[in-house]
Amino acid sequence: MRISITLTVLFALTAQAFAETTSADVEGFLIEGKLAEGKTAMQARVEAAPKDAEAQYAVGIFSVLIAAENLSQNLYRYGLRPDAPRAPFVRMPVPKNPDPETLTYEKWRGVLQQFIDDLAVAEAELAKVDDPDVKLKLPVGMVRMDLNGDGKAEDGETFWKVFTAVAWRAAKLDEDQKRFEIGFDKADVHWMIGYTHLLRAMAEAYLAYDTSEFFANTASIFFEGVDSPLAQLRAARQNDFMDQIADAVLTIHLMKFELVEPERMEVARQHLLTMISQSRLVWEYCTQETDNDREWIPNAKQTSLTPLTVNEERIAGWAQFLNEAEQVLEGKKLIPHWRVNDGRGISLRRVFTEPTQFDLIGWAHGVSALPYLEEGEVVSQETGRTLSRTFQGRFLVFAVWFQ
C-alpha cells in the first residue's frame, strides 16, 4: 500500500514538474515572439511523447497566435489606417505602414480565406488536447507578436495589446500586472476552439456574398493601400465629423449584396452550432474545477482575473442563452421582427440554409424578412429582459468573455 501511494505521489510530482518545464519552454518562445519556432519545438516534443498534453496544448496556442499574427501582417501590408472604424477583422492595432501594397477586392477575400484556414489549423491542434487535467501557465501580458511582418517582435507588439483592441477594451495592465499570468486549463481549450468557430462563421458569411461594390467605395475608409473614388474625397477632407457621418451613410447604403457562394452560409451556421457546443464544454469542465489557479474563465467559487464576477445565476443564465441560440439556429424557435405582430417570426435557420440577396435596409424595413416568416414559437422579449437583469445590463460584455 505504501509503495502504491509513493508511486502515485512520485508520478504526480513528475507530471507537475514536466508541465512546469513545458510552460517555461513555451514562455521563452512567446516572450521573444518566436511563434513558428515555438510551434515547431512543441510539435517535436509531441512526436517524441504523444501523450504530452501540455506540449500539444502549446501547439494549439501557438497556432491561434500565428493565425492572429498572419492577419495582422496582412492588414499592415495593405496599410490599415490607425484611425479606421472598429469593424470585424480590421480591429488589429497594427502600426501605420508608410509604403502599403495596393489592396484589391480579390486580395481582401484572400486575406479572409487565409484567416479561415489558419483558424482551422488551430482548431485541429487544440482538439487533440484530451487530458482533463492539462494546465499551462503563461504570461499573456508579455506575449509578443510580429504585427507588421518585419521579422521582429517589438515591445509594443504584444498579444495583450491585440486582445484589448479587439475584445476587451477596459483591460489595461500596470507594471505590477505586466505578466498577467493565466493558468490555461481544459475549459480554456474549448473556449479557444469556440472562438475559432465564431470567427470563421463571420468570415464565411461575408464571403458568401459579392461585396465588390461595397469594397470599391468603402475600403479606403480602412486602408491606405486602396485605389478607390472615396480616396480622392478623403484627400480633400475639410471636416472630420462630417466625413465620418458621410462615410457611415454610404456604408449603410451599399450594404446590398448578391449571393455568390451560398454553401458558405450553411458552413457558417454549422460553425455557430459548434461554437455553442464548445461553450457548453467550457462550463462542463469549469464547474467541476476545485482549484483556484489563475483562472481565465472561473466558476462561481473561483476568483476571476477580470473585473467581472461569475455566480451561479450567471452560469445558469448563459446556459439558457445557449439553449435559446441553438433552438433559433435549428429553426425550433423564431426571432421577432418589429413590424410583424401576427404571431409569426423569422426562421434564422432558413436564412442560412436558403440564403438570398442580403439587403440591410430591406431587413430593417421588413421586406427582406417576408420570405422567412413562419408560424411557431417566437423568442419572447422576457428572455432578453431576464438576461439583462442577470448580467446587470452587461450581457454583451459577458458574452465576449464567456463566448
SSE inventory with pairings:
Elements lengths: L1 H31 L2 H14 L4 H25 L27 H22 L8 E5 L19 H8 L14 E5 H22 L1 E2 L1 H11 L6 H7 L4 H14 L2 E4 L3 H24 L25 H18 L14 E3 L1 H6 L4 E2 H6 L7 E3 L5 H10 L4 H8 L1
Antiparallel strand pairs: 1-2, 3-4, 4-6, 5-7
Helix pairs in contact: 1-2, 1-3, 2-3, 3-4, 4-6, 6-10, 7-8, 10-11, 11-14
What does this structure look like?
With 403 residues, this protein is mainly alpha-helical. It contains 15 helices and seven strands. Helix 4 packs antiparallel against helix 6 and helix 10 runs antiparallel to helix 11.
Global structural class: mainly alpha
Biggest β-sheet: count, sense, barrel? 3 strands, antiparallel
What's the β-strand tally?
7
Total helical elements: 15
Global morphology: globular
- Rounded to an integer in angstroms, the radius of gyration calculated over CA atoms is 23 Å
What string gives the helices and strands in order?
A: HHHHEHEHEHHHEHHEHEHEHH
| Low confidence ranges | 1-19
Percent range of helical residues: 55-70%
The strand line-up of the biggest sheet is 3-4-6
What value does the average pLDDT take? Answer: 88
